[in-house]
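We treat protein structure as text, and this decision shapes the records that our systems exchange. Such a record has a labelled line for the sequence and another for the backbone structure tokens. The record that follows is passed on verbatim for readers who wish to inspect the format:
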Amino acid sequence: MVCGGFTCSKNALCSLNVVYMLVGLLLIGVAAWGKGFGLVSSIHIIGGVIAVGVFLLLIAIVGLIGLCKTNTACYTCGDMMLTHATEALKILGGVGLFFSFTEILGVWLAVRYRNQKDPRANPSAFL
């Protein structure tokens, strides 16, 4: 039995990283070929394309090294998301309660302020 049933996703990510490695090598090769035949005269453009190719190649290699990790204790995505959602909802509930109590306090203070008489007002005035 596959851990979590994600064999297809793992194989898809591996193949995608291999494709990214090929694209990175292609970028490096085309930039060097273009410079060698004199098709592109700007060294800045060639350097930028080669840098992007090297960066993409390194990211793809890191991705392939990370799909190689073997772990016997494995959790499904649903379990991980459920524990994270539970913790997040507890925090959000506490924040919601805090703001609801402060709003109740604000309503109470507004009602109290509204019912007070203005000491500067004319006592014989109706309103």
User: Anything to note?
Assistant: The chain has a mean pLDDT of 81. DSSP finds three helices and no strands in the chain. The first helix runs from residue 7 to 36. Residues 1 and 16 are 24 Å apart (CA to CA).
